[in-house]
Amino acid sequence: MQLRKTTMPDPLPISRRRLGPTDVEVTPIGLGVMQFSGGRGPFGLMFPDLSQDDMNAIVQAALDGGINWFDTAEMYGLGRSEQALAGALHAAGQGPADVVVATKWLPLLRTAGNIPRTVDKRLHHLSGYPIDLYMIHQPWSFSSVEAEMDAMAGLAHAGKIRAVGVSNFTAQAMWRAHAALAKHGLPLAANQMQYSLLHRKIEADGVLDMARQLGVTIIAYTPLGAGILGGRYHRNPELLDAAPAGRRLRLRRLVERSRPLVEALEAIAPRYDATPAQVALNWVINFQGDTVVAIPGATRVSQAADSAGAMRFQLSAAELAQLDELSRVFR
Length: 331
Description:
Layout (H helix, E strand, L loop, with lengths): L16 E2 L6 E2 L4 E2 L19 H13 L4 E3 L8 H12 L8 E6 L8 H13 L6 E4 L8 H13 L6 E4 L3 H12 L5 E7 L12 H8 L2 E5 L10 H4 L9 H13 L1 H10 L7 H11 L5 E3 L6 H9 L7 H10 L5
Helix pairs in contact: 1-2, 1-11, 2-3, 4-5, 5-6, 9-10, 9-12
């Protein structure tokens, strides 16, 4: 009996999506560069202190894979991530018009008046790359949402930034931001939220519904569930021993709860010559139509290349539904 040869689907061309009702176009997957914090700031100790050569290589791998945009923030190394990203883009020969850069204002212990006072520092750190999307990082400032949006609108009208977004905003706060910007003739482009097969809260708390109502893009961070969806902890549970003691038990429980889901990812992956992580990312950027884009991070070249590859195929409706069903326990 002659065996039938299995053929893989041809890679799909990478399309682009607009961030909300703006003219800013991004690939469905971008690269988050919180990992470029350089050991500084609130997130610095969470990641290895990468060399500039390492960061250059990671950014080059993302670009080679078709990614056209990068997400950073003031909070990531207190400007170090922005500087490192700019250095990597320069090393890759990318001009200001070749890529899209998103960054965020740190609201902690500040008022909205700080937004225009510190934007030039953001631009200085980005070394010639414009701010295509500027976001309020958290709803933590001493000012109202309306005051923050007034300040952001001032920057947009002055040509300092291209589009306005928010991050970690509730449905109600997102509506207030949208309404405040509308008074200035500007749209709300995006709300950056945690979203993955392991964290589907935005589907239940009104954020996703509000985003759809307003035409706002959801930018999904931690779209791989902090690496759990790649299956490495399921295959090698001893890796969990390295986690902090207070977090280890919770991670073990999460790994066990997610086992049927990860097994499904592993079963689907060979159909597309893909990895389980790529399948998980493909679900994030396709299950909600064009509403959601994702920003996985990377500390290695292979991770950036793997994330970019998730845009080269399209899960079937049946596969999307199967993963939806298996992950509903995480809504």
